[in-house]
Amino acid sequence: MPVFDVPLNRLVPEYIKKFEAYIPSRPDPELMRLYKVDHLWRLNNNENPLGPPEGSARIIAQFPPKRASIYPSGDSWYLRVKLAERFNIDPDQIIFGNGANEAIAFVIKAFCQEGDNIITADKTFAVYEWVAEFSGFEARLVPLKEFGFDDEEMLARIDDRTKVLFVCNPNNPTGTYWDEARLRRFLDTIAGRQIVVVDEAYCEFVEAPDYPDAMKLLDEYPNLVTFRTFSKMYGLAGLRIGYLAGSRDVVDVIRRTCIVYSVNGLAQEAALAAIGDEDHVARTRRHVNDEKAYLLRELAGLGLETHAGEGCYVMVRLPMSDTLAYRQLMAKGVMIRTMTGFRFPNWIRVSVGVHEAMEDFVRGLGEIVSDREVVL
Amino acid sequence: MQGEQTDIRLSVETDMKFLPLVLSFTESSSRIFGLEDRDALKLTLAGEEVFSYLCRMTKDPKPITLTMVNGFYYALLRFAFDGIDFDLRAFNLTADVAPDEEGLDEMGLLIASRSVDRMTIFHEAMEGTGFELIKEKTYPAVEPWKGEEAPGKDGLSLGRPDAENLKVFVRSIAGRYDPFIYPQDFRYPGKVVDMVESGEYGVLVATDRKGRIAGGMVWRSSGPSMIECYGPYVFVEDGRRKVGEELVTGLISAIGRSEAVCLMNRYSTEDLPQGYFEELGTIDFVSNGEKRPWHFLFRQLKEDPGCRVYADAGMEEFLNSQYKRHFLAREIVPVRYEGEKQNAHSVFGASFQHSQNLVVLSPLWDGADARENLARHIDALRSEGIANILFRIDLGYGWHARLYPVIEANGFVPAIIIPYRGKADYVFFTLRG
């Protein structure tokens, strides 16, 4: 028996009482046991099927166990120095976090107080909205326009209490992006009055020449902050490492809210080894392009509507509930992302995986769709 | 506006010398929150009985906090306390309290529960322990309405209606649909306005270019993980399918990032588009003496992580077949009664839906008399002319699942599983024959 009752009704703020915790999916072995399958293709989190670059893989394989007892660099010093050199900025313009998700919380905490709001799209990466809401701030959600962020409407929703605008570029899950001219127009209109975050988690997958590099705009726009991650292109999702970059003044403010020592030593070393591995980037792009083409061809053959832009994922519209398709695909050893939570009911997002996984997915989905046709 | 919701609190001790203060607090607050005289007096009477009961249950006075909550369409009186033991038997629909000294304690609770619309016990980490008594306001009944000109189907905009448009929407539903397929609250437009204001219902309407309502959907939370929706109610003549689909996708998008895990549609219309819901099953429902199918439609809003459920051996075949049919990943943990000590008295809750001549029974408290107690409930409901009696258990609770032999012995058979409706899945039973 506990010694004390904890008076949670009095201790917990009202906005936290209203908020429900995000429950991540269970570990793969648990899911395989529950769904009674002997393998599971993970096509739900946009992970890199090729894994990390060779240099990073070597670091991970050779990491001396004794080093685990030593604290890492508290602010990812060597990483910041190397990235600063690469992007021609100052190391103090960069802050690392335990995944880019942590950087979202740093920015919102740094700039928002009671009564403030943030603006983003309704159908985009959910964490901007979640962090704002469980921190007690309003998230103003602007509907996508033709699958893309609607710049005009975002500008129209700004008021005196708007502190941060989040633009996911390219957007997860739709893969649309603002070209450089459009991003510049947006930043020029805002004219430094609010913080603009451009989340470039998938930037390394984009080959289009008009795609903007926010790193190159930091000098011109001191209110611009960009997010990058080692989870996607660099295949280090399991080590949780991402970062933000912005002007010195803005980053100095964000640093006041950031948690030091939150990035572990192995992640820092593996990421350090990944920087500049252009061969890995090229191989991943080739793989993604080939498999996306395969997917789109096969899905068209099944008569399914698809949407694919930039990034390592494809959206598929189903003639059935996406959450039912999830369960049916799980029973076939394939895990995809349902899109009801992205506000795209009856759509799924499938990550590009190894070719065998793509084949299993197409075959499984084909069976589900044709079984359904028989029922109807 | 929700911001206008102001709670009023009174902290006293369980001592009868505070009774006049409790009565005055309850009656005055009830009137402030808009209850009519008759309703305010009923809630005050119930409050008096509960307070007197708690005083009798405590030898030494203990601190107690009374809170009056303005629920817009109701006033809620909450008694919150710690360390007071009470017998729950009086919460049975069939409670029959002996008119002697011993029966007096429970008699008070019985009177209280019959004086209000809802009376519940709570014991939660976030909320503490206590009673909640709810008395609803009285509203004029709906006057069904059907506009002379049908609204257009093109260029619809989706949004939340203001109070007057909401009442038009409610009247239009009553003017076009069988009462069987809309919630009984919708017989009172003013009540719906208050319920939407309090956040209890969500409403999304589609409006045409002339501002006419072309249709709408309604939803409400039903426990922490479930949202129930009703409709789509469609008022256009052509293009009904398109309007229905716009409303359904609009609703799902509106709640897709809420904490709810599942969406149920218990009052679907013929305009519900295909492909958005799964059919969990059908219950034969008696309405005006005739059997009609009641379809249970559902969709998950989140990816199913699978879960553990408790089950008596007698239910396993049914559960396995249902879980296989719906691709639900479940680990079944067997449970059974093995001679352990039991409470003397069981308690069953009874939720009435008068418009459908329906009562759903559920276990509130385990007890050695469960079999006889359940039989008494069925007899009582039949004698009141209730045609549809369901029983439901939550498979997340081992003691619910352990009741299966009691439920089965009283003539119930498992009919429908509703995933994640409670702590785990709900199973609804219907009466055999």
Descriptive report:
The complex is a heterodimer of chains A (376) and B (433). Chain A has 376 residues and is an alpha/beta fold. Helix content of chain A is 38%, strand content 15%. Chain A has two domains: 8-51 and 279-375, Aspartate Aminotransferase, domain 1 (Alpha-Beta Complex), CATH 3.90.1150; 54-274, Type I PLP-dependent aspartate aminotransferase-like (Major domain) (Aspartate Aminotransferase, domain 2). Chain A contains 14 helices and twelve strands. Chain B is an alpha+beta fold and 433 residues long. Chain B folds into three domains: 2-136, Histidine kinase-like ATPase, C-terminal domain (Heat Shock Protein 90); 157-300, Gcn5-related N-acetyltransferase (GNAT) (Aminopeptidase), CATH 3.40.630.30; 307-431, Gcn5-related N-acetyltransferase (GNAT) (Aminopeptidase). Chain B is 28% helix and 32% strand. Chain B has ten helices and 19 strands. In chain B, a hairpin with a 3-residue loop joins strand 4 and strand 5. The longest helix of chain B is centred in the first third of the chain and has 21 residues, at 37-57. Chain B is globular and about 70 Å long. Residues 96-101 of chain B have low confidence and may be disordered.
